[in-house]
Amino acid sequence: MVPVITIDGPSGSGKGTIARRLAARLGFGMLDSGALYRLTALASQNAGLAPQAPEIVDIARHLACRFDEEGNVFLNDENVSRELRTETTGAIASQIAARPEVREALLQRQRDFARAPGLVADGRDMGTVVFPEAPAKIFLDASAEVRADRRYKQLIENGFDASFTALVEEIRQRDERDRNRSVAPLRPAEDALVVDSSDLSIDEVEATLWRYIQDRLTDRDE
Ligand SMILES: Nc1ncnc2c1ncn2[C@@H]1O[C@H](COP(=O)(O)OP(=O)(O)O)[C@@H](O)[C@H]1O
Ligand SMILES: Nc1ccn([C@H]2C[C@H](O)[C@@H](COP(=O)(O)OP(=O)(O)O)O2)c(=O)n1
Predict the structure, then answer these.
(1) Binding residue ranges for ATP
(2) Which residues are in the Cytidylate kinase domain (predicted)?
């Protein structure tokens, strides 16, 4: 079986950053599962649909999207990388993601990303639902204040308008919805390594996870 490394955790915990570093180091592919929920949110908004509209299930099932090597994301051949990262899109993605039938529509597409030589997959339910057999599972966390601060800096750096106070509230709401939904709620898999990165640099997180992954992938080969 293709080795999969799962990285789950709340918004701003550093999943995407660490997933990119680990994938590059291992020469593995990447799945940014949040992007699929964000793409569904964007396509639904473009079609003028509310988050509860029944048509959204079909939109999720037939998403015409593409990811390139530089991290760009395309929806119907249009580069939507920038729109995808806004907090508004994140909030709608979180609402849509609470619907079991939307999650089901995206399930196989996510599993299809597992191809040789391996995959690093980040999201909310990678270790619990999508890849329960993964040999290495990580749950990345950080305090809500630290996560809001990171997101604020990231948005400003990328030229977006952002309010720190609004971000703290948005992150709080999204955490609550993602953790308390009935299907695939955000939680660590029983066999996940939980790392709180509040007081760790990106390099320190990477070093800790690298050791864990080496151990897990070696165990598997024995
Ligand atoms: N350990 C860390 N210390 C400081 N900043 C971090 C750390 N991990 C991630 N970041 C920064 O926080 C921001 C959000 O990280 P990101 O990987 O997008 O989080 P997620 O994918 O979990 O939402 C990015 O600007 C990233 O560079
Ligand atoms: N595997 C996943 C990935 C994302 N989601 C939902 C819940 C999240 O709030 C949104 C956006 O996820 P995304 O990982 O892009 O968000 P962050 O980068 O962590 O802020 O999608 C999910 O339910 N399951």
Answers:
(1) 9-17
(2) 5-214
